[in-house]
Amino acid sequence: MSVTPTYKCVLLDIEGTTTPISFVHDRLFSYVKNNLVNFLNENWNSLELQEQIQLLREQAMKDVNNNVSDAILVPEKQQEGEKTNEDEIKKAIIQNIQWQMTINRKIGALKSFQGFMWKSGYESGELKGELFDDVLVALKKWKENGIKIYIFSSGSISAQQSLFKNSDKGNLSEYIDGYFDTSIGSKTEKSSYVNIAKEIQFEPKDILFLSDSVKEIISAKSVCYQTAVMERKNNIPLSDDDRKNNVIFTDFHQIFSHSFLNF
């Protein structure tokens, strides 16, 4: 039985919430690792690629200045007429990205580069965004009820847009009212959720945030968001305290029969 929503807006995480963790780790991350060399070689003269490399270069300098362990610098491109150092730069880029991905770093320059590569993969048809079967039905139902829908993910906005535009359920862009990445703040920081509420012009109490991460849920809940933890297949197991202190859903269908009035 459906209940009248107590929220006016839904904010959705992606990995482990709308999309299987296995797709992100086994398909998207593997795509970057397996295609990085060829991608650099084939797109080396692209202005957009060079802009992405510059972001990596600037982040690497910050890492070195901040004494980040194992940070790998990306050399500057030589001026015209000087001896080319393309191979040196490419080698450094590969090492830099592999290092950051190994430690599962959620930093803007890396996420931007990954999103740039994934966009190419989606456009070529080699990648297809994977969504849980209940997601499309929920998106349609929220839209029919005038509920706004936003995405908040550590992946870049470009990567988010590519996934929903090129999903295995079709182009779902029409259902999404906006996207947020960590440029608005960390997903575990309270201020990020305050910033998002201001940006979309909703009171925090009118926003329902869904995520598989209890830490993210705690941050959102602390600033008066309505919240629920998604417990999908292969997500990180929840503790007894997690279950005691949070509303838990295993699919989106359950949301429409739940009243959020008391939390």
From TrEMBL:
<dbReference type="Pfam" id="PF00702">
    <property type="entry name" value="Hydrolase"/>
</dbReference>
<dbReference type="InterPro" id="IPR036412">
    <property type="entry name" value="HAD-like_sf"/>
</dbReference>
<protein>
    <submittedName>
        <fullName>Enolase-phosphatase E1-like isoform X1</fullName>
    </submittedName>
</protein>
<dbReference type="InterPro" id="IPR006439">
    <property type="entry name" value="HAD-SF_hydro_IA"/>
</dbReference>
<dbReference type="GO" id="GO:0019509">
    <property type="term" value="P:L-methionine salvage from methylthioadenosine"/>
</dbReference>
<dbReference type="GO" id="GO:0000287">
    <property type="term" value="F:magnesium ion binding"/>
</dbReference>
<dbReference type="GO" id="GO:0043874">
    <property type="term" value="F:acireductone synthase activity"/>
</dbReference>
<dbReference type="InterPro" id="IPR023214">
    <property type="entry name" value="HAD_sf"/>
</dbReference>
<keyword id="KW-0378">Hydrolase</keyword>
<keyword id="KW-0486">Methionine biosynthesis</keyword>
<keyword id="KW-0028">Amino-acid biosynthesis</keyword>
<dbReference type="InterPro" id="IPR023943">
    <property type="entry name" value="Enolase-ppase_E1"/>
</dbReference>
